[in-house]
Please model this.
Amino acid sequence: MLDNTPAITPSSSANSGDINGCLSPTKGFVSLYQKEMFMRFFEELNIQIQEGNLDKQQVKDLFSYYAIKFGKIDGFRENVTDYDTNWSNFKSFVNLMDSDCKNENDSK
Model:
């Protein structure tokens, strides 16, 4: 899904759709519904971590990469108009996983 971001231009910001350091062509349209289902999956993981039903490290190892990438691409979330006011569990998951990754890198 993240590979379906609109192509970026040289004047675009680094966070607008460039995932791997290169320009990616549009491969298809990702609907708002698909984006919201993607985010909802991570919200549900976050709730299960908080409830003690899932191990945070295992979730990070298996699922965090794309959530962190999605959380950093402002242009990809453009049509998620309620992102700033809602999606607190998704943002919490991204922050938890991203800060965990940064802490691991600092200790190496």
Summary: The mean pLDDT is 76.
